[in-house]
Amino acid sequence: MNFCRVLSCGSPVTNPVLFGIQIVGARRTKPFIMTNKIDYSEEIRNLIDGFYEPVLSAAHENEMTEKKTLSEIHKDVIRVLPAKWIEESDVYEALQELGFKTFIYTADEGNSTDDDYVDGETHLAYFLNRK
């Protein structure tokens, strides 16, 4: 008679991450393995907080204010941290915890440097001041 033990690594807080079957005896079965998602939320918060400070309102915007979408901030984060484990929702949560807000703005005529922004169009973006 063969006995099996189910191994589990992780906790419900960090999502169950790895399951396998260890066989005690001569008979072997294939292991069931799920991918391991590492929680980088603290590193994401530290990275964003180290480079930017929130703009409290559109009226507090100045020449140092950068306007970035969630996708652009996500791209900045995954240049430093592993892209495999960081999703836009993780960046969104960090931005909310740090007090960053989105504002509507209109791209200035002739000042648009990003191909995604067309002059005169209205956009929704985070207003960020570099530290």
Lay out the secondary structure.
Elements: E1 3-9, E2 18-24, H1 41-51, E3 52-54, E4 65-68, H2 70-78, H3 88-98, E5 102-106, E6 122-130
Antiparallel strand pairs: 1-2, 3-6, 4-6, 5-6
Helix pairs in contact: 1-3
Overview of the molecule:
The chain is of the alpha+beta class. The protein folds into 2 domains: 37 residues, no CATH class; 90 residues, Orthogonal Bundle (Arc Repressor Mutant, subunit A), CATH 1.10.10. The protein contains 3 helices and 6 strands. Strands 3, 4, 5 and 6 form a 4-stranded antiparallel beta sheet that branches. It has a two-stranded antiparallel sheet with strand order 1-2. A hairpin with an 8-residue loop joins strand 1 and strand 2. Helix 1 crosses helix 3. The longest helix has 11 residues.
Indicate the CATH topology of the largest domain: Arc Repressor Mutant, subunit A
Shape verdict: globular
Total strands: the figure is: 6
Number of helices: 3
Which strand-content bin applies to the residues?
25-35%
The percent range for helix content is: 10-25%
Alpha-carbon Rg, integer? 22 Å
